[in-house]
């Protein structure tokens, strides 16, 4: 278990907390692995009825750890990041996210697989894959246009422009916007409400709501994953990651 992921289970609710605030909760391979393991355990354990994913009231997640992208890029569908992405996409029980501050890259794309999303009024969602020489992941190239409409999706995915909590509420990505100090507690309160309901009904209702899409989502993740894995090693991404580490603007003029 990674030190940077805290897992706590109480009264039917498993809470997975990103706990690497000094690195803005950016996610390493070990953290993806720990979250994937926690989701598998939650699925297998009949006493866990709901999972909450949360960060800190100042930051949800700065996305993938860029040093990891540079030095330890994921290799194949069995790698921790893909295990995590497949885990959230296929998770059969209710999944709730509590999001405050920046939610970058996978910090935003994972939310499209959550059933309920509660956001702090400081939440800022962004998917800057193109700015990093990459392409979307987590089936976001399918799910973002579906939820935002094509043109707003193009702003988010081609330009990589962030959007704030109120816009997330308007498009339906967030269920409710709250003061940041209240978000995690509110998500837990909603999780407890769900945990008091019959699990079989929750699981069956979620399955029925998702079944029209589940094959498409899996195929899109496969397709994106092949491109993403290749692009991670290509010059545009290498330049973007090196520029981030060197705290300078990337120069894409030669790629
Ligand atoms: N990977 C690795 N380190 C990261 C990181 C990431 N994704 N995001 C932030 N960090 C590190 C910073 O390098 C910095 O390290 P330092 O203290 O050694 O300089 C530290 O975390 C604090 O980040 P900083 O950028 O100073 O915080 P901020 O509050 O000014 O900005 C963000 C927060 C999230 C907006 C900004 O850190 C950011 O844009 N991060 C990169 C996001 C990204 O592109 N992720 C990949 C998505 S696929």
Point out poorly predicted stretches: none
Helix-strand string: EEHEHHEEHEEHHEHEHHH
Separation, N- and C-terminal Cα atoms: 39 Å
The rounded Rg comes to 17 Å
- Our count of helices gives 10
State which percent range the strand residues make up: 5-15%
Shape: globular
- What structural class should be given to the helix and strand makeup? alpha/beta
What small ligands are held by the chains?
A: coenzyme A
| Biggest beta sheet attributes | 6 strands, mixed
> Taking strands numbered 1, 2, ... along the chain, how are they ordered across the largest sheet?
1-2-3-4-6-9
Mean pLDDT across the residues is: 97
Total strand count, please? 9
- Percent in helix: 40-55%
Q: Topology of this structure?
A:
Layout: E1 5-10, E2 13-18, H1 29-44, E3 50-54, H2 66-71, H3 80-89, E4 95-99, E5 102-104, H4 106-109, E6 116-120, E7 124-126, H5 140-148, H6 150-157, E8 163-164, H7 165-171, E9 176-178, H8 180-195, H9 199-231, H10 235-245
Parallel strand pairs: 2-3, 3-4, 4-6, 5-7, 6-9
Antiparallel strand pairs: 1-2, 7-8
